[in-house]
Amino acid sequence: MSALLEVNDLKVAYGSILAVKGLSLTVNEGEIVTLIGSNGAGKSTTLRTISGLLKPKAGTITFMGERIEGRPGHEIVARGLCQSPEGRRIFPRMSVRENLDLGAFLRNDKVAIEADRERVLDLFPRLRERYEQKGGTMSGGEQQMLAVARAMMGAPKLLLLDEPSMGLAPVLVDMIFETIVKIREQGITILLIEQNAAAALDVADRAYVLESGLIKMSGNATDLAKDEAVTKAYLGG
User: Fold this and answer.
1) Backbone angles phi, psi at 128, to 5 degrees
2) What domains are there in the chain, each with its CATH number?
3) Rounded to whole angstroms, what are the CA distances from 28 to 2, 69, 80, 197?
4) Quick check: 62 and 8 in contact, CB under 8 A?
5) Residue 9, SS3?
6) Which stretches of the chain are DSSP H helices?
7) Which of 127, 156, 177, 232 has its CA 20 to 30 A from that of 103?
8) What letter would DSSP give residue 57?
9) What is the Cα 95 distance to its own chain's centre?
10) pLDDT tens digits, the chain, 237 residues: what are they?
11) What is the spatial distance between Cα 80 and Cα 91, in angstroms, rounded to a whole number?
12) Which residues of 139-158 are buried (b: 16+ CB within 10 A; e: fewer)?
């Protein structure tokens, strides 16, 4: 298995406060890898740094064999690394169609864009029903589907998902995780950040446990789901 993403000794600071304190992780092609941890552990900061929204203080980020740390976000998206952000961040005054168009704004391969649009609408039939509806008038679950679909319109080789189940009803949480598995079946590698550790470990191949900006544990997701310390801290055991 070849490494698609390698993060090595990453340090990220907000002013004088170090939020990520020397984090290293690898995502291999074809995997679902999850990063779990409590609120404030540095999960979103890590993802935002990988996708170019934050500049690291130190460390390297290598994507498909090339160093990308500190590069602008649009360059990173163009290389095939797309993020569905925490809190959805869809454009509320734009329709589903317009939000999806924006997801593909760096592409000019019209035929492939249309094929991807059909693919995401097949994946999320609800979005097909709401196609001309403004994003802001949809339910939280529909907005989450749109955020993921919009990221997929960038033709990602690696999809970063930041808290996709946050604030959703349990039935929708199950649906989002089923869809994550389907996305991987379509050949897209996934790095998933999730507070719902049980659901994340259930779909992931490997997992990293982040505490106060440091990786405390890592390994096979099935093994970590059975680990006593992980169960106690994150799975309500």
Assistant:
1) -65, -40
2) 1-71+191-237 (3.40.50.300)
3) 6, 18, 15, 21
4) yes
5) strand
6) 43-50, 73-78, 96-103, 110-123, 125-129, 140-152, 170-185, 197-203, 221-226, 228-234
7) 177
8) S
9) 23
10) 789 999 999 999 999 999 999 999 999 999 999 999 888 889 999 999 999 999 999 999 999 999 999 899 889 998 999 988 776 688 889 999 999 988 888 888 999 899 999 999 999 999 999 999 998 898 888 898 899 899 999 899 999 999 888 888 888 888 889 999 999 999 999 999 988 899 999 999 999 999 999 999 999 999 999 998 888 888 765
11) 22
12) eebbbbbbbbbbbbbbbbbb
Three-state DSSP at 14 gives strand
Asked if residues 122 and 133 have their Cβ atoms less than 8 Å apart, the reply is no
Residue 185: helix, strand or coil by DSSP?
Answer: helix
Lookup: tokens for 31: 């995997």
**CB-CB contact of 13 with 19 (8 Å):** yes
Beta-carbon contacts of 178 under 8 Å, excluding residues fewer than 6 positions away, are none
Q: Which residue has the tokens 């939280």?
A: 140
